[in-house]
Structure formats: C-alpha cells, structure tokens
Write a structure and sequence with these properties.
The chain has 304 residues and is α/β, with parallel strands linked by helices. The protein has 10 helices and 8 strands. The strands form 2 sheets. Strands 1, 2, 3, 6, 7 and 8 form a 6-stranded parallel β-sheet that branches. Strands 4-5 form a two-stranded parallel ribbon. The radius of gyration is 36 Å and the shape is globular. The relative contact order is 0.14. Bound molecules: zinc ion (ZN). Zinc ion binds next to strand 1.
Length: 304
C-alpha cells in the first residue's frame, strides 16, 4: 500500500513534470515566434526607414540642384552684366557680333513695348509650351504697372532688357542725356520688380531703332555714351511687322518668311496691350523657324 501510494505520487509528479515541460516548451515556442516577428518588423521598419531616408535625400539633392541652378543664373546676371567689368565688356562684344555667329542657324525672339496684362501671359504660355527662351525689351512705365509679369519672365528663363521708360520719341531723344536717363529709370524699375539690386540688363534697344530718322544725331551721341558705360544696344534684322500694319495671320507669316534670310536672326515682335495677333500667331512663327532649322537663343547665351 505504502509502495502503491509512493508509486502513485511518483506517477503524479511525473505527469506534472511532463505538463510543466510542455508548458515550458509552449512558452519557449511562443517567445521564439514572437521574437522572430518582432525582429522581422524591426527589419521592415529599418528598410522602410532607409527608403524614406533615400527619398528624403533625393528630394534634398533635387532642391539643392535647383538652388544651385538659380544661384548660377543669379551669378551669371550679376557677373555678366553688372558685377564684373570684364564680363560686361565681353557681353557688349558678343552683342556687337550677334550677326556673325558661326554655330549654325540661331534665332533670338525679341518682344518690345511690354509687359502687358492682355498679351504677355499668352506669349509666356506659348514660349513655355515650346520651351523657347526669349528676350523682352521692356518699358519702365509698364514694368511699374505689371511687376509680377517681369518676375514671371525672369523666373521662366527669359532675358529682360531695356527699351526706355516712356517710349515717347520727343522725350527720349531730346538729348543723349535724356536717353541715358530713360535707360537708368527703367533699370531701376526692373530691379524693384525683381527685388534684386544686382540686376542689370546692360542692353538697350532704341525705340524706333538706333539709326536714322529726325533724331539720328542724338542717337549717334547716345550710342557713344552707352559704349563708354559698357552698355550694349541692339536692333533687329527680321520682323513680322506686328506693330507696322500686319493685321492678319497671313500678313504676319508673309513678313516673317520674307525677312528671315540669314543664319543669325534677331526677330522683332511686340507684347504691347493691343498685340493680340502677335500671341495668336506665335505658335506658327515658332513652328516655321523650327522647320527652317533654327535653334532659339536668348541674351543669356551671350553672357560668358
Ligand atoms: Zn518699341
């Protein structure tokens, strides 16, 4: 009996031990699985973390590239026109030699008498669509009215140049000093609009052209004074006559075809408020020049 009881106790303890072992094993198993899951999750998180980090880095690099690009543009403007005398002189030389370029066929699209709310944004939209960079010869009094359009032109990579303040011949051509005054007044408006004290267009276009007419003598004197100050001036060698009577798309295109004759073309157009036809025809103008094998440049391409 004693033995039986002992034996029963042993058996009972044995069973208990087995149960304990099973529970222990179960606990162990659960802990191991949990450990694996946690470890895996940790790894996943690490991978995700790395991905996010890589993405953030790529974004940062892109942002830095953009900042670098706009810094380079700003430096170009500062160095090429105002900041550095040697670069200013080089720019004047390059503008003087604009019709002697030997790199194939190139065209400079130029728009005078703007900016205007009615026309300039449409022109900018079309230029953007074709990724064409142009040069805007702006009027100081219109810059004052539409500074945001100047900022957009600048932002979208177009060159902003100077076409006097008032565009009133009798006022501008009173004397060579008056020409310089109109130039400076417009430069001030451009700087103010851009919020950039360093901006200097360094490029003037005489209203009505730099030669001939009743103000020829004043123009000649003003040219010498501009040269002395290392300021370039530029006329054109092709035009659509959009400000001289071309009142249909057909006439605009006919004038274009008849005047685009050389490898180096400076094309005159206008973005004054009434030049609706100019923006309505601009796509056809660009397509025509593309078909003829021209590449589009603007004045930034003349800044070394
Ligand atoms: Zn003009």
């Amino acid at each position: 009996m004693q033995y039986q009881i002992e034996s029963f106790k042993v058996k009972k303890r044995g069973k208990q031990v087995i149960v304990y072992v099973i529970i222990l094993l179960l606990v162990l198993l659960v802990s191991i699985s949990l450990g694996i899951v946690v470890a895996r999750k940790g790894n996943e998180e690490k991978t995700m973390g790395k991905l996010i980090e890589t993405k953030a880095n790529a974004k940062k690099v892109k942002k830095e590239e953009r900042q670098e690009q706009s810094k380079r543009n700003n430096e170009k403007q500062g160095d090429g026109t105002q900041g550095n005398l040697e670069n200013k002189k080089q720019f004047v030389k390059n503008v003087d030699q604009i019709y002697n370029g030997e790199k194939g066929k190139r065209v400079f699209l130029t728009f005078d008498d703007g900016p205007s709310e009615a026309v300039t944004p449409h022109i900018l939209d079309t230029l953007k669509k074709y990724n064409v960079k142009a040069t805007f010869f702006v009027l100081g009094n219109r810059v004052k009215l539409n500074p945001e359009l100047i900022r957009r032109e600048y932002r979208e990579g177009h060159y902003i140049a100077n076409h006097s303040y008032s565009h009133e011949y009798s006022k501008i051509y009173k004397s060579s000093n008056a020409v310089l005054k109109e130039y400076n007044k417009t430069e001030e408006q451009i700087k103010r609009a851009l919020g950039n004290e360093n901006y200097s267009s360094n490029l003037f276009r005489f209203p009505g052209g730099s030669t001939g007419g009743e103000y020829d003598k004043v123009k000649e004197k003003a040219k010498k004074e501009l040269e002395a100050k290392n300021i370039a001036y530029l006329d054109w060698n092709a035009l659509t006559s959009d400000a001289a009577g071309a009142d249909t798309k057909e006439k605009i295109m006919k004038n274009l075809e008849e005047t685009v004759l050389y490898n180096n073309v400076v094309l005159l157009m206008h973005d004054a408020p009434d030049k609706i036809l100019t923006y309505e025809t601009l796509e056809d103008v660009i397509k025509y020049l593309q078909k003829k094998g021209y590449t589009f440049e603007n004045m930034y391409d003349l800044i070394s």
